[in-house]
Automatic annotation (TrEMBL):
One of its GO terms (cellular component) is cytosol. GO terms for biological process: 'de novo' IMP biosynthetic process; adenine biosynthetic process. Residues 142-350 form the ATP-grasp domain. This is ATP-grasp domain-containing protein. Pathway: Purine metabolism; IMP biosynthesis via de novo pathway; 5-amino-1-(5-phospho-D-ribosyl)imidazole from N(2)-formyl-N(1)-(5-phospho-D-ribosyl)glycinamide: step 2/2; Purine metabolism; IMP biosynthesis via de novo pathway; N(1)-(5-phospho-D-ribosyl)glycinamide from 5-phospho-alpha-D-ribose 1-diphosphate: step 2/2. It comes from Sarocladium strictum (Black bundle disease fungus).
Length: 812
């Protein structure tokens, strides 16, 4: 601040006043800010619109402004000085008592406008020239991300054409090619083949299609996922982000046609969850801001981070050092009325953002951009426009317009936009389109996209969630079993058929030289992605029970008594207390099942897993005599009764889908469970799998078949105990469906049949029993503490279906 000299008028030094006004509640006599706003787009109109609502703002001078800023309250357009003439802007600021400068576009920031005002002692909301390289140079930003471990696409820089071509030949991922200098958003090429990639390189590096901007290129890995943008206010230390938004860059509906500056936008996006927002802060924004400080270039202003939400988490596509367009027109209307944008901007420039209120309304916002015919190619300018007052909750933001006398005319390609805010995304989008249908805006040749927010609606309305979408393909699993059958069969030996597809494996010891010995039965299983919930909650003492349950329940369905258990625990770095908690859980499960934990293996494999992740598997071994093996296929007949034993919850299957649904609902595992507010989401989901061994063993002689309901749900598991001639006919409504499944179904919009193919839906074990013994078996099990339901019966198998759930469509 030692540049501040006595030639600066008091109004140029807001710091003293600022401190006082921080503590003052009254806003009546606070209008002390005279703002110089640089730019003429929709973004700048939106900034002027919100800034003008600040009680602190006395006046706004837009250089050069547009038809919207010309009529915005407190705002006037300035044509006496050019936006590129920095000394002229400083002079204008000094002679007009400007005490806050807001550059809208990147160009002045990249060219160092902040430094000019800094020298003059006038606060400027925006990064220094050095910090603006985050946007100004792709090479700089990619190197920066690498240095500070900010997740982004794999990349290499090339200034040599031949080396770039060799790289294209060498990599095995699809690529994106970017000219490193500013190329007005046009410097990005997404080739679909290696030949196309090489042709693009030639055009950029040899033919200089983008001029000097193409003397250096970045070749980047193609990232797939949802593309989002986040705007983050920053004073160098504190960050405050606006809701995640999604732009629509292509000109035509369905994301077709050439790229534009942005044809519409909505926020917040429907994939926004608290977890995702926190992950973006933790993995991307905080390291970026800390990295800039470490570079001795603290970032002040607004950082626009373009993100791809990939299956491996959010990754940065690009940084911009200014507000987005049309993101700004979309997210500023979500700020509460008492959120003072001028105060926030000053705070960013002066370093007290932590003291500022930034409140976001719990609403949705949608912006539709109207373009001039021909855009993004050549288009007419000077077309007269009619613009009426928009309905309540809608706002019109001008971009390429200018006021000539009283007549508003077009002056750009993206001409104007309408934004609406509503209680739902649907309401916001509908309000914008309704206003356009009512011709609030009209000019010759205008056009706009009719499908803004289509991605959000596609996933909400059309697709209900399925296990396969969550990344798990039961069919692929079954195909795999078919594939490995041969190799497995080749291990056949006396006493063991080595066939697969059952619940466990058997060796008949009496055929292995141990006369009168029983059949040895073994089962192996893991816990699956339920482990990720345990890891995220750092609660490791129950998943061991799940591990035992998954195995011993598979043994008991063969009529076997589990005798021993062995576990395997794999991690990158052994944390004693985590591993000990885990094994405690295994021991608890073994006690519940009456089997001995006879061995285990703990494998520490540096780099094998991420951070504190671990995986676990276990194996149970038991015995059964020949006469008590289950299922008794020959004894099963039409009319046999099916009993269902209640489950303790989701048990250990379907967690990929569970996690996805929880995420889509915006819940953290520590939030109260909507289906059971006495517990957190995570703790409720971690309820261990019920172990049915001790309750079932005494009744096994009266039972014809048992099915442990694991992955594949009722529909896939019940047929596993049946002969080909019989099918299970289960009646929906004959058992109580626990609240957690109702919630999963409703929240994930999961089809009933998908529920019964993925989850146990409340039944953890199905028993086939002679109709005559059904009542006594049910009573014995109920007396032993099980929840017993008569859920159906065995019928003749007509088609291929081994399990039919009657009346399932009633589940809604
Ligand atoms: P950029 O100018 O780097 O922001 O890129 C413009 C657009 O190209 C982005 O908004 C993306 O839609 C697309 N894009 C850029 N880089 C990638 C990448 N690595 N993978 C996939 N799409 C990309
Ligand atoms: N909407 C994209 C941008 O402002 O760069």
């Amino acid at each position: 601040m030692d540049q501040i000299s006595s030639t600066i008028t008091p109004i140029d030094r807001p710091e003293k006043r600022l401190k006082r006004e921080h503590n003052s509640a009254s806003s009546s006599d606070m209008a002390d800010l005279r703002i110089l706003l640089i730019g003429n787009g929709g973004r700048e109109h939106a900034l002027a619109w919100k800034l003008s609502q600040s009680p602190r703002v006395e006046s706004i001078f837009a250089v050069p402004g547009n038809g919207g800023t010309a009529t915005c309250p407190k705002t006037s357009n300035v044509t006496s000085v050019s936006a590129e003439d920095f000394p002229g802007l400083v002079q204008f600021a000094q002679s007009n008592g400007i005490n806050l400068v807001v550059p809208g576009p990147e160009a002045p920031l990249v060219d160092g406008v902040e430094g000019f005002f800094k020298k003059a002692g006038i606060p400027c909301f925006g990064p220094s020239k050095e910090a603006a390289r985050l946007e100004g140079s792709k090479t700089y930003s990619k190197d920066f991300m690498k240095k500070y471990n900010v997740p982004t696409a794999a990349y290499e820089n090339f200034s040599d054409y031949e080396k770039a071509v060799a790289y294209i030949d060498a990599v095995d991922h699809d690529v994106v090619i970017k000219a490193t200098g500013l190329a007005a958003g046009k410097g990005v090429i997404l080739p679909t083949t290696k030949d196309e990639a090489k042709e693009a390189l030639k055009q950029i590096m040899v033919d200089k299609a983008f001029g000097d901007a193409g003397s250096e290129v970045v070749i980047e890995e193609l990232l797939l996922g949802d593309e989002l943008s986040v705007l983050t206010f920053c004073d160098g230390y504190t960050i405050k982000s606006l809701p995640l938004a999604q732009d629509h860059k292509r000109i035509f509906d369905g994301d077709q046609g050439p790229n534009t500056g942005g044809m519409g936008c909505y926020a917040p996006t429907n994939i926004t969850t608290k977890e995702l927002t926190e992950q973006i802060d933790r993995e991307i924004l905080e390291p970026t801001i800390a990295g800039m400080r470490r570079e001795k270039q603290p970032f002040r202003g607004v950082l626009f981070t373009g993100l791809m939400i990939t299956s491996a988490g959010p990754k940065v596509l690009e940084y911009n050092v200014r507000f987005g367009d049309p993101e700004t027109q979309t997210v500023l209307p979500l700020l509460s009325a008492d959120t003072d944008l001028a105060e926030i901007m000053l705070a960013c420039a002066e370093g007290y953002l932590d003291n500022c209120n930034l409140t976001i309304e719990n609403k949705f916002s949608a912006t539709v951009v109207l373009a001039a015919g021909g855009y993004p190619g050549s288009y007419a300018k000077g077309t007269p426009m009619k613009v009426d007052s928009p309905p309540a909750n809608s706002t019109i933001f001008h971009a390429g317009t200018k006021l000539e006398g009283d007549q508003l005319k077009t002056s750009g390609g993206r001409v104007i936009a309408i934004n609406s805010v509503g209680d739902s995304l649907r309401a916001a989008v509908d309000a914008s389109y309704a206003a356009l249908s009512n011709k609030v805006i009209d000019f010759e040749g205008m056009f706009y996209r009719k499908d803004i927010a289509h991605r959000a609606f596609r996933s909400v309305e059309k697709t209900s969630m399925t296990y396969a979408q969550a990344g798990v393909d039961i069919k692929a699993g079954n195909d795999f079993v078919d594939k490995i059958k041969k190799a497995v069969a080749s291990t056949k030996r006396a006493g063991a058929d080595a066939e697969i597809g059952g619940f466990g494996g058997e060796v008949d010891l009496s055929q292995c030289g141990y006369p009168d010995a029983p059949i040895l039965v073994g089962a192996i299983d893991g816990v699956g992605t339920k482990l990720m919930i345990a890891q995220s909650l750092k609660k490791h003492d129950t998943v061991g029970i799940d591990l035992v349950a998954m195995n011993v329940n598979d043994l008991v369905v063969q009529g076997a008594e589990p005798l021993m258990f062995l576990d395997y625990y794999g991690c990158s770095k052994l944390d004693l207390s985590t591993a000990a908690d885990f094994v405690e859980g295994v021991a608890t499960g073994c006690r519940q099942a009456g089997c001995a934990l006879v061995g285990g293996e703990t494998a520490e494999m540096p780099g094998m897993y991420q951070a504190d992740d671990y995986d676990a598997a276990g194996c149970a071994v038991g015995t059964v005599t020949k006469s008590s093996r289950l299922p008794r296929l020959d004894a099963m007949t039409e009319g046999d009764v099916l009993l269902g034993l209640g489950s303790a919850g989701v048990h250990s299957n379907g967690f990929s889908l569970v996690r996805r649904i929880v995420q889509s609902a915006g819940l953290s595992y520590t939030d109260p469970a909507p289906w059971d507010t006495s517990k957190s989401v995570g703790v409720s989901l971690l309820t261990p799998t019920r172990i049915y061994v001790k309750t079932l063993l005494p009744s096994l002689s009266q039972i014809k078949g048992l099915a442990h309901i694991t992955g594949g749900g009722l529909i896939e598991n019940v047929p596993r105990m049946l002969p080909d001639s019989l099918a299970a006919e289960i009646t929906y409504g004959s058992w109580t469906i626990p609240a957690v499944f109702q919630w999963l179904k409703k929240t994930g919009n999961v089809a009933p049949v998908e529920m019964c193919r993925t989850f146990n839906s409340g039944i953890g074990m199905v028993i086939a029993v002679d109709a005559a013994s059904a009542a006594s078996v049910a009573k014995a099990l109920a007396d032993a503490g099980e929840q017993v339901f008569e859920i159906g019966k065995l019928v003749k198998r007509e088609g291929g279906e081994g399990c039919v759930i009657k009346n399932l469509e009633a589940w809604n």
